[in-house]
Structure formats: C-alpha cells, structure tokens
Automatic annotation (TrEMBL), chains A, B:
Protein name listed in UniProt: 3-dehydroquinate synthase
Origin species: Mesorhizobium jarvisii
Gene encoding the protein: aroB
Family: Belongs to the sugar phosphate cyclases superfamily. Dehydroquinate synthase family.
Biological processes per GO annotation: amino acid biosynthetic process; aromatic amino acid family biosynthetic process; chorismate biosynthetic process
GO MF entries: 3-dehydroquinate synthase activity; metal ion binding; nucleotide binding
Length: 378, 378
C-alpha cells in the first residue's frame, strides 16, 4: 500500500478547528495522527460488519503503532442501525471499556456508522473526543465533515442527534477500492453537488476527470479534498444551520421525497441516488421557473447519466406514488407557511440559492409533468 | 396565590445567558415570561405524575394566558425514569407534537424530570429551546441551573447526556409547599453546600434562618436566589467542568458511595441525604488531615442535625457494606492514579478546594474509624 503525503484541509471553527487528512494509506497512520493530537488517549472503534471485514485489521495495526489498543464495537450494516437500540448498544460498549471524557471514540465506516458513533460520542459523559475515519465516498465528501450526528426516528430521518465536531477526520482514499460501485456512484452525487452549489469550476473539472476519480488516481484525492474544502467553508460560516448551510440541501428536497416514496428501500434507491435525481429536478424546476437556462439542466442530466447515476424519476425501478403523494412527502418534511415552501433553487451551475417562497402549486405541476406515469402517457 | 415581584438571577454565559426567576406564583406567569423571550413559540411540557397532580393545571393555565397551548408528556416519578426507554418516549412525544427546532420543551418537575427533559430537548432536531420549571427544592437550587442534563446507565448515574443551557428557569417557590418534607430537607443539603463551598456568610445566615426557609416566608426565595447566584457564578466560570465546577461536588464522593452502597434505594437514602452525610464526612476528613479545625466539622454536623438531616453513616437505616467495600465504590466512580484520589476537601467553612492527591489509604482508615460497625464496636 502506498503512503503518499496526504492533503490537509482545515475546518476553521476557532477553538474547535480540526484537520481533515485525505490520502491513501491513512488507516496505517491513524495511531500516529491521533496520539499526536490527543496524547495518551485510549480509544474505542465503532464499525460495521462489512467495513470490519475489509479494513478493521489495518486500522487496528495503525492504531497500535501509535500505542493505542482499541476496544472494537461492531454494528450490523445499513440505515436501520441508526436507531435508539443501536445507540444504546454503542453507548454501553464505550462505558464498558471504561473510557473517560478525554478518551476518543473512532468511527470506521460510512455515514451510518459516522452518524451513530458521533451521536454516542457526543452523549457519553456529556461529550467525548471523536475521530472520523470515513470509508464510503459519501462519508468522505459529506457526512464526516461538519459535526452533524444522529439517528432516525420512526417519524423521520435524522430527527435525533447532536452537533459534535470531530477532532480529526482521516479520509483514506484507498479504502474506497472495496466500496461497491453503486455506493461509490451515490457518494459521487454529493461530490458533484458542491460544484452545482457554488463551484462551477469543480463541476467543469469533474465533467472532464470523473473517470480518473472513479479509477482512484491522484484525481480522486484531489476531488475529495475540494469537496471537503467546499463543505468546510459552509460549515465554518454557519455551523448550526441557521442560514447558508441549507445550501447543502441542494437536491435533497426532491431526493428525500423519493426516498420516502420508495420506503427507504435501498434496493430501489439509495440516498445519493435520490440526491442525483433531486439535483437534476432542482435544475429542471429552476429552468421551468425561468430562473436558469434549460442548457444548464441538460448539462447536469448529461453528466449524471454519463457516470451511471439515475437522473429522472423513471430511472427508479418499480411504481412511484402519484405527484400529489410526492408533494405530501415534501410538505411533511418541512414547514409550509401559507402554501409556500423553502427550496434550494439555482440560477445556473454553481449558482444555487435558498428560495423561501416557492408556491406548492408550482411544485405540484412540475411533479406532474415529470412523473413517469404522465411521461409514459404523454 | 400571591404573586410577589420575583427575584432575577442572571447566568452570564455570553450569547447563551439566561434568567432564573425566583418567587411565588410564577407558574401562572409562565406563558408571559416564555413568550416574551421566545415569541410565537409552541411548547411541550414534560412532567411526572406527582407533579402533574399538584401543579400541571396551574402551569397550563399560565401558559395559555401567554397564548401557548402545550402538549403534555407525563412520566412515572422516580430515578428509574432517567433511562434510555423513557428518553425515547419523551423524544417521540415531542416529535409527535410536530414541534420545530425553534419551539420549546418545558420541564415541570424535580431533578429527574429536568435532567431527562433537558436531554431530550438537546437531541430532538439536534437541539430545541428548553425551559426549566423546577418543582423540588433540589431542582430549584441545583439541577435546573447550569445546563447538565442526562440519564443513568446500568454502569452508573448520569453517565449519558448533553450540556444544554435552558433559555429560562422559573423557580416558583410556592410549589414547594406540596413537596414531601423529606425531599425538602434533601434539597436543603444542596443549598447549605454553597455556604460550605465558598459562602461562609450564607452558611451563617442559614444557621439562624433555616426555619423560615422551611416555613416559606420571603427567606425561602432569598435563600434559593443566593444558591442560584452561587451556582451561576461557578457555571459561568467553568461551563463544561474542566476545573472549578468540580467544587460543586463537595460531599458527593462520599455521598455517591453511600447511595451505591444502599443500591439507590430511596427508602433508605435519597441523594440529598447522601450529600448531607458526605459533606459532614468531607469536613471531618479534612480535620483529620489537619487541613481544617474540628470545630468547623462539628458546626456542620450540628446544623445538619438541627434541620433533621442525617449527618453520619449510622443515620442510614439497615446494614452498610464495610469500609473496603465503600472505598471500592469511591474508586469505581473516579480515575485513581497511582493510589491517589481527587476529593473536594476544605480548610474550613466556606473554604472548599480540589485536592488531587488524596491517598486511598487515608480514605480507607477514615472510613474504618467512622463506620457504624466499628463505632458500635469501639
Ligand atoms: N452527518 C451528515 O452530515 C450526513 C450527511 C450526509 C449523509 N448522512 C448520512 O449518511 C448515511 C449514508 O452514508 P453512506 O452512504 O456512507 O451509507 P453506509 O454507511 O450505510 O455505507 C454504505 C454501504 O457501504 C458499506 N461500506 C462502507 N464503506 C465501505 C468500504 N470501504 N468497503 C466496503 N463496504 C463499505 C457499508 O457497510 C454499507 O453497506 C445516511 O444515514 C445519511 O443520513 C449524514
Ligand atoms: N443536572 C444537574 O446539574 C443535577 C444536579 C443535582 C442533581 N441532579 C439530579 O436530580 C435528581 C434528583 O432531583 P430531585 O431530588 O428533585 O428528584 P425527583 O425529581 O425525583 O423529585 C423528588 C420527588 O418529589 C416529587 N416532587 C417534585 N416536586 C414536587 C412538588 N412540588 N410537589 C410534590 N411532589 C413533588 C417527585 O415526583 C419525586 O417523587 C437526580 O436524578 C440527580 O442526579 C442533577
Ligand atoms: Zn445527502
Ligand atoms: Zn447533588
């Protein structure tokens, strides 16, 4: 395994600032990097069965080189793990290891493990040290950065959690080689999102270089670093999502509705795929509202299709509920004040903005026009 | 019910500063006080069955006067309610009421309800607004101020939780009239604690005026306000307990060991009673270590006895485990570095300090000398 010099992105949050290291071979350096920042710490590692099979031994060896003998807590893989029952298990595992407030909890896994583990680290002894070792592309470019942690409730996704910034993020780009391609693509949608929000040059670069990002050359680390920079910028401006941070939800309003409409059945649609379709729809909708040029929407669709991501509702296998039902999933998710919805819309690639007054009626007509049923019929 | 002008104590935490209002009749003013600070808010009230029976209607009427129609979530009374299962119930109740991040969760009850509710408010949507309406003396002088929230784990008390400062504390001194006398006394122990830590004039004042505090005259509100000031001072200096805040644990090392030794059986010992005995022991131990005069220890014991609180181990009904076992409860509770323990000791009344190097062997001899078994034998 090659250990190149990693790229460092700093998340500027004052006395809670931290580094994101991005590069291959970082699992082997975990002990060194952690104990340099938290000398004398003890650790628990939380992971899932898939990731444990592929990467736990490497991480353990890396920790041991830094003098850290971790306790390991292994969860089942999958979104259902983000539950109160599993939270209680992780909390109990950390307490059973007799870790103190100054010790560290390490999340080794995708966004599910990162969100669950960060929440546990945030509540054991009212807050321990937390380190993210994201192993999915989605986690490396999105969920491991920014301090949102949490679990799901039967009443909705991510409704329960805390803000807890990690002390360090180690994004080992080599571990992505074992990630199923469909998961890689799903993470890629979130990566492309930063280009669409406010980095048009990133999007243009991805249009040219995406194959190298998938193949794993230095372009992969470069793209991930750029995504982390983009997210770190937003987070530093608006840590607790009282304003700008909402831009990160580009594509997520439509995306969440589609996830809900498919009962969060990963066989039909995983989160990043929902976001891909959602981003294409957000661009198409913005063009329909005469906010952006239809050429930009077409460019987004073309790129998503090129990388093998779904980009329209008809790409989802199986039947979808009708437009009215989709709208009700959207309004369930958010405050509706007098028939107006808050949406992330765009004036073109790299020019997303928060629109607070989108008429629900416009959304409904748009959903009708773009619904697979009406398309087939029309 | 008389509505006097309440006393206001400000907790100086910068942009999270908040007021503690202390006075009688405050439940009836809850709606006005809350909606002045959080205009247009919706609310959930969390309470326990005992407190609901005595005070919920008054609070509801008070909220409605301020235009707030709350959802009510009622828990069983008692320490066992501070569990993951009840946390999940409260979280679900808040979500079922479809409250948003800017809405408010109100805790109406003693420390159990305050700790559980604050934790739930801190994690629903990663943090909602929180208001404390403490109804036990302990909650009014201690647990409602300072932002520590949490639940118990089978592995220990208060091991899981968050820091969440309330937006407002309404300490209605009138509601204490329905509090069982034993609970009142237990809360009084924590009140006297502030005098013993660093307010010798408060302790001297209590020696003279304690009967009026029990009877419920203006002295009651005065004493509670002084206690809140004392706690607010410490919290403003050290919100996350990295230093000085540990002084608030005066009496708690011995106290917790006694609570554990009696299996948290409230019929034998409630928390404040453990603290009373613990404070007397901390003074006696300090005098044995030649740090303080035995006269001060005697003064503490005399006052605790006068108000009807237990002050020595032999005041606990039933058998206690032996000194070795008590020491093991103490060392279980804290980091022991090379046989040395951290303890809150004192140089005299109002002169408590953090001692980091107390030899476990000294603690053991002291526990042996003061153990009921050896006392009866000797
Ligand atoms: N906290 C945030 O800011 C934030 C942001 C976006 C998404 N999320 C959350 O992230 C979650 C989705 O994350 P995800 O897509 O990483 O899901 P995930 O954690 O379920 O990982 C996807 C799958 O890939 C497997 N896997 C992960 N890394 C692997 C590797 N290197 N090799 C082989 N298999 C591997 C996992 O076991 C799982 O089966 C959602 O719960 C979402 O809500 C959180
Ligand atoms: N968060 C903190 O900083 C902090 C500090 C100290 C203690 N605590 C916690 O506080 C808890 C103890 O608090 P507590 O002593 O208030 O216990 P509690 O909440 O159990 O109340 C004691 C009893 O009095 C009843 N009660 C409360 N108010 C009443 C009223 N006005 N009229 C009639 N009955 C009433 C309750 O139903 C209960 O049965 C413990 O769990 C302890 O860990 C927390
Ligand atoms: Zn996403
Ligand atoms: Zn106490």
């Amino acid at each position: 395994m090659s250990v190149d010099q990693p790229v460092t992105v700093e998340v500027g949050l004052g006395d809670r600032a931290y580094d994101i290291l991005i590069g291959s071979g970082l699992l082997s350096r975990a002990g060194e990097e952690i104990s340099r920042r938290l000398p004398g710490t003890r650790a628990a590692v939380v992971t899932d069965e898939n990731v444990a099979a592929a990467h736990l031994d490497t991480l353990k060896a890396g920790l041991e080189k830094g003098g850290i003998q971790p306790t390991v807590i292994t969860m089942p893989p999958g979104e259902k793990t983000k539950s109160f029952a599993h939270l209680e298990e992780v909390v109990d595992g950390i307490l059973a290891a007799r870790l103190e407030r100054g010790d560290v909890v390490v999340a080794l896994g995708g966004g599910v493990i990162g969100d669950l583990t960060g929440f546990a680290a945030g509540i054991v002894r009212r807050g321990m040290n937390f380190v993210q070792v994201p192993t999915s592309l989605l986690a490396q470019v999105d969920s491991s950065v920014g301090g949102k942690t949490g679990i799901n409730s039967p009443r909705g996704k991510n409704l329960v959690g805390v803000f807890l910034q990690p002390r360090l993020v180690l994004a080992d780009t080599g571990v992505l080689d074992t990630l199923p391609i469909r998961e890689f693509r799903a993470g890629y949608a979130e990566l492309a999102k930063y280009g669409l929000i406010d980095r048009p040059e990133l999007f243009a670069w991805l249009e040219v270089n995406w194959q190298k990002v998938f193949a794993g050359g230095p372009e992969r680390a470069q793209a991930i670093a750029e995504a982390c920079r983009a997210k770190a910028d937003v987070v530093a401006r608006d840590e607790f999502e009282t304003g700008d941070r909402a831009l990160l939800n580009l594509g997520h309003t439509f995306g969440h509705a589609l996830e809900a409409a498919t009962q969060y059945d990963g066989a039909r649609l995983v989160h990043g795929e929902g976001v891909a379709i959602g981003m294409a729809l957000a661009h198409r909708f913005s063009s329909r509202l005469n906010l952006a040029s239809p050429d930009d929407a077409a460019r987004v669709e073309t790129h998503l299709r090129a990388v093998g991501l779904p980009w329209r509702m008809s790409d989802i296998p199986g039947e979808l509920p009708d437009a009215e039902a989709l709208l009700s999933f959207i309004t369930q998710d958010k405050k509706v004040s007098r028939g107006a919805l808050t949406f992330i819309l765009t004036r073109g690639i790299g020019q997303a903005f928060i629109a607070k007054d989108v008429p629900a009626s416009e959304v409904l007509s748009f959903l009708r026009e773009n619904h697979p049923a009406s398309r087939k019929a029309g």
